[in-house]
Request: fold
Amino acid sequence: MNVTELLRDSMKTKPASNRGARKKTSTSKDVVRMNYNENNYGMSDKVKQVIIDAALGSYMYQDFYAVDLKEKLAGLYGLTKDHILVGSGSSAVIDMLGEVFINYGDEVVYCMPSYEAFPDMVSDNGGVRVPVPLDKDYKFDLDGMFAAITDKTKMAIVVNPNNPTGTYVNAAAVEMFVRRLPEHVIAVVDEAYFEYVDDDTHYSLIRMIQEGYDRPLIVLRTFSKIYGLAGLRIGYAVGDPLLIDELMKACQAWNVGRNAQMAAMAALDDQDYIKEMKALNIANRSYVSGELKKLGCDVVEPAANFIYFDAHRDSQAVRNKLAESKIMIGAPDAFNRVSVGTREQNEAFIAAMRMVMEELPVR
Ligand SMILES: *Cc1c(COP(=O)(O)O)cnc(C)c1O
Reply:
């Protein structure tokens, strides 16, 4: 069977990625998951109840166009429901961006290391990856990105805060970058961790859309992180209705489930809980980062619900050692990335890290 012959050209040349892996990623209950940036406190009691009730209605199809959820979001932002696209996770929306806008040969500029779904999406559609290194503080290098824009650039992507580094760039700088882009470039700003940023001067770029910005800009948000609904798969894009209408063309048929829509609406109604989660994360994050520093790690200033750090040990070995203690963290490169968990989880992680630092040789 010559499968390669059957492939679309972009798939023939697409570099290997996690999407092609066949590893099991579910874990047993006794494993502490600090590798996916989930909210390990879960959802509020109100949202839990809505999910339980919704689950029993699963014999029914959902509202195919998630109109109630879009209206709720529109109300929250002072926009119309036509400014909102709901997808099964913002990752699904990222794929739609590629399918609708990226043609063979189109260049897409972003920074690396960052969220892998973006380079994946570029290659899926035959686009050309134009990765720019992060700056010396592990932040998105907006000037570097601007310098990489050409006549062939179709899209410029800013992940803010960034994953895996946890750094952020102040919204005013991102807004300036977006405004400088030539008209043929679509600006995409991924704000998956926006709610965690503890800075009064920071704002969502949704504001530009509220102000009627008339050039292509898409802002991505998700219910997977602070809202604690990762397993339900729901996220959304905000943009001018002209862009959203085109994006809808690539929406996988009826892919946002009923339970996810119900849970997302209930979660939006419970903003007190989100505030509480933000405050807890700030306290827990500061504990983990302080303790890691005491253990001799270099810690990159975190703005989200995870910490990117250099243990000066082989990062894979650090991850593997912790896995022996049933604590999962990430090793995206020479650094490690640990999600901020509950207090108990963080204490268990630090205790295990203390042993890891003693047992493993300095790199
Ligand atoms: C987790 C994450 C997302 C959200 O993914 P979902 O598909 O909504 O679960 C998006 N962007 C970044 C940078 C992330 O880290």
